[in-house]
Amino acid sequence: xxxxxxxxxxxxxxxxxxxxxxxxxxxxxxxxxxxxxxxxxxxxxxxxxxxxxxxxxxxxxxxxxxxxxxxxxxxxxxxxxxxxxxxxxxxxxxxxxxxxxxxxxxxxxxxxxxxxxxxxxxxxxxxxxxxxxxxxxxxxxxxxxxxxxxxxxxxxxxxxxxxxxxxxxxxxxxxxxxxxxxxxxxxxxxxxxxxxxxxxxxxxxxxxxxxxxxxxxxxxxxxxxxxxxxxxxxxxxxxxxxx
Length: 243
Hints:
Elements: H1 9-67, H2 70-75, H3 82-87, H4 93-106, H5 112-134, H6 138-141, H7 145-166, H8 175-197, H9 207-236
């Protein structure tokens, strides 16, 4: 019986260096795209902000108790149901706080937008990994579509909470739940339809993996972009105490 030798230190260092390099490239791309369109996006979102604020607050108050029902907790544990968990804004709050604190400590000179862009880039890379994994074997790709969508939705919810925390809003406030739904639906409905429409194309060997990575990454960026616009315009007309 043969055993596979453990990866060498050089191999681990090479993998880590490659990941860091890809992360830096992704962060630079996100920063360019986000900064180029931020002003226009903020101007558009600011027009809807007065109407969205009371709606997200009300939705958050309603969704909070529902998310804690035993039946819902059981349902969200089933395969392919992570999207429901994300839609209810159910995230690990302590993990969110820890991740944001670590990011601030690592990049103390960066402003809120730059930190949010790092979160978007990191999450997009994770989404790319999910897209590659769930579309690598074409016959299995279609069966894993719900798993893929659920995993991406969970990444989106966590990202929105982290961006909200970066901009000074408490991750424990029920408003976050309503904002997750508003931002998620606003930014990803069209992209989600594109993702669903590409499910058959993802069965094509080679092309499927590329499409899976591209669509999952675009989903993350669109949600992150709207989250940044939402919280930047929210800060310009504050209705909530910042933390």
